[in-house]
Every structure is written in C-alpha cells, then in structure tokens.
Amino acid sequence: MKQNLALQITNLGKRYKIGERESYLTIRDIFSRLLVKNNLTKNFWALKNVSFQVKKGEIFGIIGPNGAGKSTLLKLLSRISEPTEGEILIRGKLNSLLEVGAGFNSELTGRENIFLNGAILGMKRPEIRERLDRIAEFSGISQFLDTPAKYYSSGMFVRLGLTIALQAKWDILVIDEVLSVLDKQFQDKIFKYLQKITRTGKTIIIVSHNLELIKRYCQHVMLLQKGRRVQNAQHY
C-alpha cells in the first residue's frame, strides 16, 4: 500500500443469498429441496468488482441511488460485515458514524452521555474530561449539559453525537447521511472543521444524496450503481 494512501479497495464484492418463497410446497418438495439446498436460494451481488483509493488528507464522496450498494460498502469498511471477495487495506484507525447517537441513553444528561458515548468510541475518561467543554460548546448544548437527553431535539442529538465522534481518535472517519439532517449553519461549521483537520493528514469519507454538499466539499467522488462503480468524477 502506497504511503500516501489511507484506503485501498481492490475488486471488492459482497454476495447475499436470497431464499425463494412459494405459497405452497408438498412434503415431497420440502424433502427434495432440503437435499438440494441451492434450489432454495439465489445469489445477489450487492457489490461486485469495486476498486478505488482514497488519499490521506482527502475528503472523498460516495454517491448513488437507493440500492446502489452504498450501505453495504460502509458495512464492509466498518468491519460490520465481511466481503465475499476482494481486499480492503486500511492505514490507521477507521471510525464510522453510521448512526449518530447510537449508545445514547435518554435518561442520562448530556454530560453523562458524552462520557458514555466517548467511551464507546474508545476515548479514555481523562481525554473525555479534557475535551468536555469543547464538545459542549461546539455542539451548542452548553446550557443543556446537565439536562436529561430525553428533552433534546433530534437536531441536538445529531450535533452532540457528531461532535463527540469528531473528538475521538481516528485517522479515517466514515460519515453516512447524518449531515443531511443538520441545518446549513452547522453543516458549514462541521466542514470548516473537517477541512482544517484534513490538513493534518486525517481522511474523511462521506456518503450522501446531497450532491451540492458533495460537490462543494469533496475532492474526489465515486458513483455506485447496482453494486458497481460507474465512474470517478475528479475535481468538480
């Protein structure tokens, strides 16, 4: 793997087996199909022959319609699922922000949830304590820090979860559609911060249907369609 690359994907594929459903089967049919298992299933390739590279310090976009394979790709990158074929080479620590606020407890305060979520993301308690005020201020919840999270709006949840993730230790950060639910002012604030930290060599991968956002902030973009890479649009 080249030294300037954060991520290298080669001929990546993910195959699922889908069971066929019929309204009526005889006992003989059931026993026959148990003996010939392949008759009960068919292969579906959610991803096939996908290859791409992401450089260190880059903001890389992934776009495509629903069902294109974007979620499958993110699961493979995050090690939630294993590929059927191909190779994933990652240089450094990869964190995924696929569901902001996962692990939050609505009965706990914002302060308590920062410690809880930070620990889930691998932060040590002294690190969280050191960055607590920074997280509260950046996310805009300082005055609600000791309020139970059940009283937070969905926007507050997203801002807090995203801010905690940004403060955790990572070299590559994968962000799903969570940015699209943020107001434009906070989006601009996030991307100003992301552009700043990518200068230190950190890498961002963004998956979004918001083409304007992708066009504005990503240096390179990959289009997925029906599980395959269609094109790589460079330097919008």
Secondary structure elements and pairings:
Layout: E1 5-19, H1 27-35, E2 41-55, E3 59-63, H2 70-77, E4 85-90, E5 94-97, H3 110-120, H4 125-139, H5 154-167, E6 172-175, H6 184-198, E7 203-207, H7 211-217, E8 220-225, E9 228-234
Mean pLDDT: 85
What fraction strand?
A: 25-35%
Order the strands across the largest sheet as they lie in space: 5-6-7-3-8-9
In N-to-C order, the SSE pattern is EHEEHEEHHHEHEHEE
Shape: globular
Low-confidence stretches: none
Quantity of strands, as a count: 9
Question: What share of the residues lie within helices?
Answer: 25-40%
Which structural class fits the helix and strand makeup? alpha/beta
Distance between the termini: 27 Å
Largest sheet: 6 strands, mixed
Gyration radius, to the nearest Å?
21 Å
In DSSP terms (H or I, runs of 4 or more residues), the helix count works out at: 7
Structural summary, described in words:
The protein has 236 residues and is an alpha/beta fold. The chain contains 7 helices and 9 strands; from the N terminus they run βαββαββαααβαβαββ. The chain has helices spanning 27-35, 70-77, 110-120, 125-139, 154-167, 184-198, 211-217; strands at 5-19, 41-55, 59-63, 85-90, 94-97, 172-175, 203-207, 220-225, 228-234. The chain has a 6-stranded mixed sheet, sandwiched between helices. Helix 6 (184-198) links the parallel strand 6 (172-175) and strand 7. Helix 3 packs across helix 4, helix 3 packs across helix 5 and helix 4 (125-139) crosses helix 5. The longest helix has 15 residues, at 125-139. The mean pLDDT is 85.
